Structure formats: structure tokens, C-alpha cells
């Protein structure tokens, strides 16, 4: 099964995501598309980040601060996804008509993945190295950058990992450590360099920092406003996000 078809199944389980893509195609504006899809502006940005991160290439091309609060359009990959979704809807209708017991559909629904991790990236196994009781999984992200995940031997076997297997990479926002590119990196940690796209203050907690990666994926980190000021980091600043290999969670399609 291709990455595009897997992603189409993902958004099919979340119809509001498809509604957002349809409205972006029609409206050309994130603000107007979010309103038409019944989503907040922030939820629309989160949804676009999630879809772009899970795809091998961005589905939505956007510009911050454009007409109507940010211009947006579907890429050719996004247009193909919408067409695939329409075909999947027709197939889904046939399956629902053939289902003999609603309980079977409920079981399938419980098996679908839902996670609290803000960062959900697509990747592919590049190599597996044994390290004592664990395995170090080398993961290639779209665009050629790579990170590492440390998991147990049993987890490697359970996920049926081998070179070339596609993965979903999960990283909690609070696990990312931010620093400027002029600061020394910790060689023991994963490092992804990008540009701060937005800083969203929170009333009762750390700021949400959106980081645009060169490959079109987006990271979401948490950082105190004082820390960002102290490091000279703001919107448009180059930034490095670091995180431990043990903080990288992996998932595969069943």
C-alpha cells in the first residue's frame, strides 16, 4: 500500500481534515477554509501541519499573513489525495453495506491509532543497529535528513522493522530542546534544524513554537518566553531542535 493511500485512510477516519482540504482548494485562504470547515484558525494550522508531516511531500502550500489571514493552496499531491478520498468513500459505502454486524465495525474503530504526541512525522527505516538490550533505529525523513530511535529488541520484532519499512515517528512537543544554530549542539542527541515559523503564547504555560523544516514538515515545541528571549529566538530565527533517541516513539501500519 502506498503512502498516499495510507494517508487517505488516515484522513478518511477524520472527515474534518478532508473538509479542510476541500475548502482550501475552494477558498485559497486558511482563515476562510477553517471557518467553512467548522474549525478554529489554530486547529486548521495544526491539521495542515499533521497532514504535511505524515505525507512524503506537502499537501498544502501556505503563506503566513496572506489575504484572509494566510494564503493556502493544495499541491499536486494534495489534489491527488482528494481524488483518492472520493474513491475510498465509494469503496467504504460498499463495505458498510456488506457488514453483517455493527460490532465488527466498532472493533475496527478501536484499532485505529490515536495519539497525544503533537509531532507525527513520516519516515522510513534506514538501518538497525544492535546496542546491548536495545536496537538503535536509523530513520530517514523526507528530504534526506535522518534521526535515531532507541527501542527494545522485542519492539523491533513486534513492529516487524527492517530496512525500507515506512514508519510513523512520534515526538512529544515537551521533549524538544531548542537552541540557536550558533550554539554548540549536543552530539548525543538527535538534531533537526529549521526556522521558527510562529510563536503562540499560552496564558498559563509555555509558548508553542512551530518550526518549519527544510523538507516541508513542521515541528511543534514548547518553550518559556523568557528562554526564547534569552536565546535571541523569535519568528524567522534559525533554530535547532534536539531530542534523545529514547524519546522517539515509532508506529507502523498493521
UniProtKB/TrEMBL annotation:
InterPro entries: LysR_HTH_N (IPR000847), Mo/tungstate-bd_C_term_dom (IPR008995), ModE (IPR016462), ModE-bd_N (IPR003725), Molybdate_resp_trans_reg (IPR051815), Mop_domain (IPR004606), Transp-assoc_OB_typ1 (IPR005116), WH-like_DNA-bd_sf (IPR036388)
Mop domain: residues covered: 114-180, 185-252
Domain of life: Bacteria
Pfam families recorded: HTH_1, TOBE
Coiled-coil residue windows: none
SUPFAM superfamilies, per database record: MOP-like (SSF50331), Winged helix' DNA-binding domain (SSF46785)
Required for dimer formation and molybdate binding: annotated span: 115-123
GO molecular function: DNA-binding transcription factor activity; molybdenum ion binding
Annotated family: Belongs to the ModE family.
Name of this protein: Molybdate transport system regulatory protein
Organism: Phytopseudomonas flavescens
Lineage, broadest ranks: Bacteria, Pseudomonadati, Pseudomonadota, Gammaproteobacteria, Pseudomonadales
